[in-house]
Specification:
Elements (H helix, E strand, L loop, with lengths): L1 H15 L10 H15 L3 E9 L28 E7 L6 E9 H15 L6 H15 L4 H7 L3 E6 L23 E4 L18 E5 L12 H12 L2 E5 L5 H10 L4 E10 L8 E3 L4 E3 L15 E9 L4 H8 L1 H5 L3 E5 L5 H15 L5 H13 L3 E4 L2 E4 L2 E4 L2 H4 L4 E2 L3 H4 L2 E5 L3
Parallel strand pairs: 1-4, 4-5, 6-7, 6-8, 8-11, 11-12
Antiparallel strand pairs: 1-2, 2-3, 8-9, 9-10, 12-17, 13-14, 13-16, 14-15
């Protein structure tokens, strides 16, 4: 575990350009942390490392995996590296399993196929369930008996390159999606995550967004989304269009320490430098490398929500940006989507999510219940209204014209991922 934790921590530090002096969490510290979360939330979590391990040493020295410098005796990534799972829970020994036949080349190929099928709304069940089942068999099934023996309810995935943009919620065991059994989170590394637990129910939300843009497609559901969140579902303030500027975002947070920041706008995680990725404000782009200057870590923002973001799926740098969002923003947790989901699907998910957030002890469980509601057909559009948890939200004419719709297909719900602290 120590080598994977160290490797992933250093990768994110390097890409995000953050301090490299953070101590790497030990197994004992990780176990203590899990126990604390268990006591605070009543939910039993587990930390899961999913990484590719070289099958043999390059020059006979011990595996270090922290560099691609072959001459120094350090192994380099190859297509034949083997999948390894490491499980840490509050009790018992660390469980480590290497998955025979699951090479980097094979796993990444199936992961790419899975993403292409699940992001296609026209794909049939058989198209996405085959790769979903194969990934499940490699990444989850070998540890399932251990989950059951310990009553595990929450899985935090810390995963290798090429796997960070997998919609883990939609992995499938042949009968059920993973989300039907566990709440799920994606961490960059444990050492870079602020894992302190704080109940979120009494915090206020600062909700901002834009419905129209000069160089991007409009988001006609955004005004409805902001209105549905606050003051209807949550206490706080909202600002639309010309109120959604960098200056106002800074001033509002400075005047009041909002615990939740909700940004209903386009956001893109792009290949290349961190500065290539951005959040679209009303009159400017907020680049991801500027997030750390906003002071959202003092006092800490408990949850940042980006309700219309997308990631360059399968690209290592874009994946690092997405999985590192909470770290980059200085927030404990972030909710974002791996691909751009339809305006109506996003509105449905966000409306249901804030209802669930009031009723659950952790953010990832609120997301799980939201995704289940969509999967089970409890969130849908009918007769010009969005129906979520039996509440009716009238839609604007642009969205009414699209007709009735359910959101059962994983395209609509599995993109949304809890990043950083899932509790």
């Amino acid at each position: 575990m120590d080598s994977s934790e160290k490797l992933f921590t250093q990768k994110f530090q390097q890409y995000l350009g953050i301090s490299t002096d953070a101590p790497v969490k030990t197994i004992a510290q990780t176990r203590n942390l899990i126990q604390e979360i268990e006591e605070a939330t009543g939910i039993k979590p587990a930390i899961m490392y999913v990484s590719f391990i070289p099958q043999k040493l390059v020059t006979g020295r011990s595996i270090d995996r922290l560099s691609s410098d072959n001459s120094s005796g350090i192994t380099v990534p190859t297509a034949q590296d083997q999948l390894e799972l490491v499980l840490i829970t509050s009790k018992g020994a660390v469980i480590r399993k290497r998955i025979e036949g699951a090479t980097r080349e094979k796993v990444i190929a199936v992961a790419n196929n899975f993403r292409s099928q699940v992001t296609n709304l026209r794909s049939q069940e058989g198209d996405y369930l085959a790769p979903a089942k194969q990934l499940y068999d490699w990444m989850v099934a070998p540890l399932e008996a251990d989950f059951k023996a310990q009553g595990i309810q929450n899985l935090s995935f810390i995963v290798d390159t090429g796997l960070r943009s997998i919609p883990f919620a939609a992995l499938h065991d042949g009968k059920q999606f993973l989300i039907e059994k566990y709440s799920i989170g994606l961490m960059p590394s444990l050492s870079l995550t602020d894992t302190r637990y704080k109940p979120i129910k009494n915090l206020e939300v600062l909700a901002m967004g834009a419905a129209s843009f000069t160089d991007q497609k409009p988001l006609p559901a955004v005004p409805v989304e902001l209105l549905a969140i606050t003051p209807s579902l949550w206490q706080g303030k909202s600002f639309l269009n010309d109120g959604f500027t960098l200056e106002n975002l800074k001033n509002q947070r400075k005047d009041e320490p909002f615990g939740i920041i909700h940004l209903a706008t386009h956001a893109n995680f792009q290949p290349g430098e961190v500065s290539n990725s951005y959040i679209q404000l009303w009159n400017s782009k907020l680049k991801m490398n500027q997030l750390s200057s906003l002071g959202w870590n003092n006092p800490p923002v408990e949850l940042l929500v980006l309700s219309a973001c997308r990631t360059a799926l399968g690209n290592e740098e874009a994946e690092l940006g997405f999985a590192g969002l909470a770290v980059q923003a200085g927030v404990k947790s972030a909710l974002g989507s791996l691909w751009y989901v339809s305006d109506r699907g996003t509105l449905g998910l966000m409306t249901e999510f804030y209802q669930q957030l009031k009723q659950t002890s952790t953010k990832s469980e609120a997301l799980r219940q939201t995704q289940l509601a969509m999967l089970q057909g409890k969130v849908y559009v009918s007769g010009g209204n969005l129906v979520a948890d039996s509440d009716l939200v009238p839609l604007p004419p642009e969205l009414v014209r699209l007709g009735d719709q359910t959101f059962k297909h994983p395209y609509f719900w599995s993109a949304f991922t809890m990043i950083g602290n899932p509790w």
